[in-house]
Structure prediction request, 92 residues.
Amino acid sequence: AASGVLPSGTTITTHWKTVETLREWHPTLIVDKEHSVVKNENSTLYCSAGISAGIDMCFRLVTDLFGETVARETAKSMEYTYPEDYQRRIQF
Prediction:
C-alpha cells in the first residue's frame, strides 16, 4: 500500500491486529475486516490476512484458474480443509 501502486478504493485485508492501523495509514483503501481473503473483482489482485489465510488465498486462486474440483482435490491431498467461505476464523 505504501508504494502507491493500489488505486484509491481498492479492497484489501490484513491480519486482524493491524486492520485499524492500515485504515489509519491508508484511508483511501477499503480494509475488509470481515474476510481473511479478498479478491478485487475488477483486477487480478488477491489479498490475504496471514499465514493460514495465505493458504486459503491459494485455494481461491486455484479455484479461479482451474475450478473448484481441482482446488478441493488439492486441499484434500494437503489434508487441509477447503474454505467454504472466506470469513475470518476468529471474531475481534
